[in-house]
């Protein structure tokens, strides 16, 4: 039987996951070893190490609350918005909006506000470079933010929320780019922000926990462009990943362990590697 490089990667991932399960079942020294395996899984998925997790809740979300970045030391600097291609900047913006819409529709406008203001915040102006002339409706997002501040229920402006989603989706079609590359960017960013949002099984930064959910939600949209069985496999694994969050990424959620999220992101990216 001939093994391709992708088969070998898949075999290695499966072996690591099975090894982790076996060690955990043994107890004692096995627990320590399982911890090492899980740590290795996280490191292999994302070699970059984020800074301090920041305060729990939304206190650190800048731009919308203090003009100082987004809780992890400033997303603009962390992600190099001035050097990212426009399609990645748009995907990043869409992730924030998706998080905000989910929270707003779940009846948490206080948690949603900063995410929905993100596209028009002066702090994140670099993200919008080149989008206004392509049809970005900044006034629409300002209108939604004003409705939030006024205490308007999401059902009352659902048409505006749907219009905002559609505006960003149309922009994505206009901007173009490789869906595969955008997906890898979103998945890497998901893990970065989830690690900031969750520590020792607790949500320590609800804003980043919610953003990670938003990036996965948007990834599902981009994955719709993938063709063939490989595309189907990516969409299936993305569905498993998204199910690790509740229906909405509320601040009082019980988060999935970071190592489990990291392992599932690795599975998605493994399937994505088979897309031409």
Molecular structure report:
The protein has eleven helices and two strands, in the order H-H-H-H-H-H-H-H-E-E-H-H-H. A two-stranded antiparallel ribbon has the order 1-2. Residues 1-5, 11-56 and 58-78 have low confidence and may be disordered. The chain has two domains: 81-177; 178-276. The protein is mainly α. Helix 8 (179-197) runs antiparallel to helix 9. It is globular and about 45 Å long. The protein has helices at residues 5-26, 29-45, 75-79, 86-105, 109-117, 138-149, 158-175, 179-197, 206-223, 228-242, 258-272; strands at residues 198-199, 202-203.
Order of strands, widest sheet: 1-2
Tally the beta strands.
2
> Helix and strand string, N-terminal first?
HHHHHHHHEEHHH
Q: What does the average pLDDT come to?
A: 79
Could you estimate the helical fraction of the residues in percent? 55-70%
Give me the number of helical elements.
Answer: 11
Domains, number: 2
Terminal residue distance? 23 Å
Rounded Rg: 19 Å
Shape: globular
Which stretches are poorly predicted, pLDDT < 50 over at least 5 residues?
Answer: 1-5, 11-56, 58-78
Indicate the proportion of strand residues: under 5%
- Largest β-sheet summary: 2 strands, antiparallel
Backbone structural class? mainly alpha
Keywords: Coiled coil, Signal
Region (Disordered): 28-82
Protein name: Lipoprotein
Biased composition (Gly residues): 57-66
